[in-house]
Amino acid sequence: PQRQLTFAGNIRESAVSPSGEFLAYVEEDSVGFRVLVKDVRGGGDPREVGRGYAIQSLQWSGDGTEVRYRTFHAREGWSYLAVPRFGGSPRVLSRSLYASVSPDGGRIATLPPEGTPLRITGPREGDSLVVPVPGGASYHFSPTWSPAGDRIAIVLGDAGVPVYRIVVAGTQPGRAEPAREVLVSRDPLQGAAWSPDGRSLYYLLDEG
Questions:
Q1: Rounded distance, CA 64 to CA 62, Å?
Q2: Is the preceding peptide bond at 134 cis, omega within 30 degrees of 0?
Q3: Residues 133-143: what's their mean pLDDT?
Q4: What Å distances lie between residue 137 and 153, 154, 159, 207, CA to CA?
Q5: Would you say 131 and 117 are in contact if contact means Cβ atoms under 8 Å apart?
Q6: What is the pLDDT of residue 83?
Q7: How many Å from the N-terminal Cα to the C-terminal Cα in the chain?
């Protein structure tokens, strides 16, 4: 049976917690965007946990205790933040526009606004990795970790030429192998996501 969880027509993104108990979603209002968390099983009103002029890339931490998202503020610019699911002070994970935290929370992958390479950093010196990514892309979407944290998928695009690509890079420390191309399309691609078993990639394709 279906169950309606929100009743506003201005929802932009949503993500279900790993346990399925909570729903995080982005709602647009008259002054910007806000992140709300709703207790799906327990009920009650949703709780606002974050706000910004723009909010993107909403996701949960692997243990379901935090909500992560990219946001823009006039003074700080873009930030990648993590906030407790019940609210509180957010912590800055990265100031990079394109960033993503590994499923275990131990490493973070970042891409510069333009160009490459992909950089993966961790708490220990040996965790850092620089991965070459095929050139020619004028923009890209945030890197997406596989469920096991052993690979990263990136959607690349070129504003001048209608070519869109998905590349996959390994994340094993000490083995900086170039990312390999797994899909090329003339139609716009975005939103690459891994299947739960990490064997497949899903993506949005605009054939219009």
A1: 6
A2: no
A3: 68
A4: 15, 11, 8, 20
A5: yes
A6: 94
A7: 32
